[in-house]
Amino acid sequence: MILALVPVGLALALPWCAAPAVRRLAALLAPRQASVVLAGAGALLAGGTVAALVGLFHVPFLARLERIPLHTVAAAWPLVLPVSAVAGVVLAVQAVVLVRRWCEHRRLLDRAWASVRGAAPDGDVLVVRGSAPEAFALPGFRGRGGRVVVTTGMLGALGPAEREVLFAHERTHLAGRHHLLSVIAYLAAAVHPALRPLRPDLDFHLERWADETAAAAVDSRKRAATAIARAALAAAPAGQPPRGLGALASVGSGPVPRRVQALLAAAPSGPGGRRGRAAVAGLGAAVVVSALMGLLLAYGLHEYVELAAAGLRGA
Amino acid sequence: MRVENGSVTVDEAGERRPHGELVAEVLAVLWSASGPLTPVEVNSAIGRGLARTTVTTILTRLCEKGTVVRIRSGRGFAYSPADDAAGLAAGRMRRELEREPQRDLVLKRFVSSLSEDDEDLLRRLLLDAGDDR
Prior knowledge:
heterodimer; A: mainly alpha; 4-stranded mixed beta sheet; 12 helices; B: 133 residues; alpha+beta; Arc Repressor Mutant, subunit A; 2 domains; two-stranded antiparallel ribbon; disordered N terminus
C-alpha cells in the first residue's frame, strides 16, 4: 500500500511543479494561446487532483466489491481506512466549494443584469447615464445576449476613434466567452491551492487578448494603447487611493500600464528563433506529460488495488 | 425602418459599424448637451459625417422607446433625454456593482483601477506615444 501511495502522492504534488511551468509557458505565448493554455492546464491539473483523491477514497469500496472483508483489508493495509477517510473529507469539501463558487458566479451574473435593468439596449450596446467613466462586458444570461455596458462619462472621456477600441475590446470578451475561462480558473483554484496563481495571470492574458483584437480592428496599436491609457486615467480621479490591487499589481507596475506598454511594443508573434520555439515545445510537453501523468497515476492506483485484492482473495 | 439587433450601419466613409455604437454616441451627445438638439446638431457633434437620415432614424426609434423626448423646432424636431424614464442612473449601477468584491469574475472591465505609480507611468506613456487624439 505504501508503494501505491507514492505515485498518488506525486500526482497530488504535481500542480506545485506544473503551475509555475504553465505560467512561464503562458508568458512566452501570444495572449490568445496563453489564455487557452492557462485555462486548459488549470482544468487538467484540477482533474488529475480529483482523480487521485477519488483513487485513494475508493480503495475500501473496491475491496467490498471484490468481496473481501474489510478487516482483512485493514489487517493487510493498516493505512487504508485513515487515508480513504481523509481523501473522502477533502473531496466532500471540494465538492461544496465548487458548487458554492458556481452558484456565486450565477448570482453575480444575476445581480449584474439586475443592476442595469431599465437601461434601453440598442444592438449589443447598453448606455448608462452618468459621469463616472465605466465600461464592461456583461455576459449573456438566461437567453439574453451579451452586452457592452458603457456610461456616458466613459463615452465622453474618449474620442470617436478610441470608442471603437473600447467596443472592439469588450466585444472580444463577449464573443470569446472570456468569463467562462475565468470561471474555470476560479473553480480549479478551489481544487488545488497551487492552481490559485493561474487566475490573475489568466485575467491579464484575457485583457491582452481583447486589446490585441481591438488593435487589429482599428488597425492601430498606438490608438488602442492611448484609448486604454486615457480611459484608465479618466476612471481614476486624482487623489483617490488605489482599490483592489490584484496580485499582478504588486509586481512593479499594474496591469493597465503593462497592457499599454505591450501595445506600444511590437505585435506579439509568439516565441521567435529556434531556442524560443524549443523552450515553448519543451515547456508545453512537460505540462501535457505531467497532466497526463496525474490521470495515469490515479488509474494505476485503481489497477494496483484490484491486483492486490486478487492476491488477498487468493491467500 | 426597423434596425434589428446586431445590424450594421454604413457611414459616409464607407465604414461599417455595429448599430449599437452609433446609438451610444447619439445618447452620449444628448446627455452631455445643455438643451434639446436637432438631428443636424447631433450629427455634427458626433463628427462622423453620417447620413442625416441615419441620425434621424436613430432619434425617432429612441423617441418611440421613451429614451428621449422631442419638441417641435422649426420644421423638424429637437430631441433631449427623457427624465430618467428609460435612462438608468450610473450611480445606482456602480453602487450595486461595487458591493461585489468578486464582480471581476463575470464582468470584464475595460480598465482596472490604478495605483498612483500606475497613473504617473500611464501619463508618461501617453506623452511618449505622441498624444494625438
